[in-house]
User: Fold this.
Amino acid sequence: MNTYVPSGLHIRTSRQIASKIRELGFNCVRLNWSLEMFYNNPIIRPEVLAGMQGVFPDTSNVRALTVFDKVIEDLAAEKIGVIIDNHVSDAKWCCDPRDGNSLWFNDRYTVNDFSNAWEHMAARYASQRYVIGVDLRNEIRPDIRFEAGKLGIKFPGWGTGDRRVSVADFVSLLEFEVNPRGWAEKLAFEAVKRVLSLAKLPFLEYFDWKPVAEDVGSKITSLNPNVLILIQGIFSTHSYTPSILPFLLHHIHAIPQLSFIPLPSSFTSYAQVQNLTGVVTNPAVVRGGENRVGYTAHVYPFFYGDSGNKWDGAKPTYDAFKTEVDKYWGDVSNIANRPLWVGELGTGHGDISGAWNDYIIRYMQEKDFDFAYWPLADARPEVDGSGVFQPGSDGYGVMDGNYNGPADAKHYETVKGLMQMRINA
Assistant:
């Protein structure tokens, strides 16, 4: 993300990559952008655009939004739909509750900045019919930071209103909702109380995503009534008894200044999911776009424990897995009568068996969900800490790092199987 442009342009033209996407069988791309990219619109480093020589007269003087325009133009030329996604605020890889990009605002970009950027992006591509949707914000999650000797925790909510909660009230509510059972959960609960006490946290803050999504979605619809407004669920955490205890402990313990706080070995990994349950009883209302609202969730094996191990070996049954996912987002399309799109799913080339094939792939096939696979290529281009551009490697991509073809034959066959299910539907 810190190159400010889509990956692969250091080695191929955007038209060549668009052609390969079509050749592989995909018909839509989720295209990421950051608030930093929009507001700064920087000149892109020439080595990042080495593959675009001949496309631009001078690759040493091309700005980010110009590149974004060209990528969309070339995807449209290949008749590939585009869903533009506000992935982060700061242009860097995500996602972590400690990265400053958890919510739709941070210390550098306000809620108004978020809304204003979306209005401009909607207007910019209103006449491009292959821009078919907008993914308002990527992976909204709690924000946990330790600054100036103080711990701060901000939670997203849905229909909760913006509010502050005292630590005492939070602990009481947590104990009531979680109802810790067994020694592990009770130990975790006591550890969280100790963390909050040691950190001298004055209060916890909740910020309501629902009115922001509705307001921004309404503004986008007024500028382009044809796009689908996609609203992501809020990242919460759960095990078989919904619990934020492992989440809080894991991420607070990872803060260097707070690493002395004990972390039970059973909570070094944790399960998490995007929670869309709130939209069932309190759906988003977008003015002028009532029939253009959809919801979106992400699913990876590692969302269900450490690298999917929760579902390997002595794992729960498929029915238990299905019940859990149905509850949080899988049944939203049926209950709320709105479309649901799996905006990200993926797995490493070496992890295509086990949990992935057994559960997640089966679930996708049964539900017949449309999806976007993350990422396109086995590449992770970025500018490293010393300012040097590195092509990088991801280990998840459908295509190889040179954008020639599939990175791994078995991996691609599995992805193609998901596409085939859509063709046969």
